[in-house]
UniProtKB/TrEMBL annotation:
<feature type="domain" description="UspA">
    <location>
        <begin position="67"/>
        <end position="127"/>
    </location>
</feature>
<dbReference type="InterPro" id="IPR006016">
    <property type="entry name" value="UspA"/>
</dbReference>
<dbReference type="InterPro" id="IPR014729">
    <property type="entry name" value="Rossmann-like_a/b/a_fold"/>
</dbReference>
<protein>
    <submittedName>
        <fullName>UspA</fullName>
    </submittedName>
</protein>
<dbReference type="Pfam" id="PF00582">
    <property type="entry name" value="Usp"/>
</dbReference>
Length: 143
């Protein structure tokens, strides 16, 4: 998010920043006794709460950031991201990478990697937090 704010500051200071959250309804939702739509509403509520926690930690430098929530209907958030970017005529997609080493990436496919491979419609910038680079051992320990 910091990179999007920084780019906006350098570009014109007026660009709209949209933060997309792609959420899904878990496959076992029906065991809760709730309908698909009811459980989707619950997942959306959690996404909104998590966004509020996330955005509180960010220095927005006075820029309005619009949250956008997309329900993943086809178990492919990459397509959801690309389609929404095209729909809203986004100038760029900025996504954070988890910071894995090349060896780790061989074993674990990431959303950022799939976006790089799949997206040929909207310019893409993949960012990584400074000093963050998880190796295979750290990644396995995080699981």
């Amino acid at each position: 998010m910091e990179e999007a704010i920084e780019i906006t500051e350098k570009y014109d200071g007026k660009s709209e920043i949209i933060c997309q959250n792609v959420f899904s309804v878990p496959s076992g939702y029906h065991f809760t006794g709730k309908s698909y739509e009811e459980f989707s509403d619950i997942m959306l509520m959690h996404a909104k709460v998590n966004y509020k926690k996330f955005i509180r930690k960010i220095d927005t430098k006075g820029h309005d950031i619009t949250p956008l929530y997309t329900r993943d209907e086809d178990d492919d958030p990459v397509i959801d991201i690309i389609n929404k970017a095209q729909e809203i005529e986004a100038n760029i997609i900025i996504i954070g990478a988890k910071g894995r080493t090349a060896a780790t990436a061989l074993f674990i496919g990431s959303l950022a990697e799939r976006l790089i491979q799949t997206n040929n419609k909207v310019p893409l910038l993949v960012t990584r937090p400074k000093g963050k680079n998880a190796g295979i051992i750290e990644y396995i320990l995080d699981i």
